[in-house]
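Methods — Computational structure assignment.
A single polypeptide chain was analysed. Its primary sequence is given first, followed by the predicted tertiary structure written as structure tokens.
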Amino acid sequence: MSDILDLAPLETRAADLVDAARRAGADSADAIAVRGVSRGAEVRNGKLEEMEHAEGDDLGLRVFVGRRSAIVSTSETEPADYAALAERAVAMARVAPEDAHARIAEAGETGIASGDLDLLDPVRPQLDQLIETAREAEEACLAVSGVSKSGGASASSGLTGIVLVSSNGFCGGYMRSRHGVSASAIAGSGTGMQRDYDFTSALHRSDLCGAAEVGRTAGERAVARLDPRKIATQSGAVVFDPRVSGGLIGHLSSAVNGAAVARKTSMLRERMGQQLFGKGVTITDDPLRVRGLSSRPFDGDGLAARPLALVEDGVLKSWIMDLATAHELGLASTAHASRGVGSAPSPSSSNLTLLAGSETPEALIASVKSGIYVTELIGHGANTVTGDYSRGAAGFLIENGKLGAPVAEITIAGNLIDMFARLVPANDLVFRYATNAPTVLVEDMTIAGR
């Protein structure tokens, strides 16, 4: 895995592609080069079920001829192939429709954020270490009383190198490592079986939760779900566990995406500067978080990454934009372009966070006379055009301020705009995912049961 530690070959390939595009007649061009290496192991019932080692290179070229553009990609890395690839891209661009908004950044707009984001872990475990880690997680899972069988456990490690080169003179690159451990447990028997899981993911292996902790948590969660009740349809409060509360902030991210706003397909397109959440609620997107899962020194347009306040004291403050959507909206890019080798830049969040509130999770639960504590959400029933929200869910009853029996086969429903206005965050924020939120309380939702 040491080959990837040198970005120079990627820089050369991307620069050669841009040069080939200019020779083929492109007015401007940029190229992205990506090299990835990954390893993984999965065990089930004490036996090694799968091992994986993968590595590969991918190249993407975007060319502009006037206001027309085209994108091509390849996994071929031989320079002799670049001229034909560039000629094909330019030929495609010449017959493409004009786009009044897409463009290559001007030289004065580009940049790379200063400071060390600490994205690269020097520790790169071998396959035998990953196998042992997965086994440790599964053994801890099976040791939990009530767990009947393992759903499997896995451990993985990978490195990715990314380089962007543009005809405007920009050249930037960075490397990111990634480690993960997961476990799945099955409790009970027959038709009464329940399944649950846990996982941990981090750029640095030392930041992972312990494998035994992951396995034990998966087992305890599965056992806690045994013998769930079915409840009558009612209105009540819903408390979202941190592993699902981030989904609410993800829906906000979709609604404030500049592309959705420009297309007029966002429920929030007329709400900039309005009070969307309660006082004290702050939501940020920070691509410069040290060791953040989605941190980056520059975006897909080659603009220096910078933190963004989406919501301040409950007020909506910004859209998430790349160069093209910002131009269409008559605004400046927030440096949130994301892209793959075969796709154009598009707006995307990075490390999205609902900041912690002042109340403990216990205090939020204690304030609920009747409701549900949700630990799992099912389906994709959130419409960010209308705000309609309806998701299958499982979790636990809340009765007179205390957690009660497990519940399943329920649906929680409401409208996202109303839910945002009533949302109350707890103080237990932990950075475990790319989108992070603490425990969240939302009053007055429909809870549909039998």
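Note: The mean pLDDT is 96.
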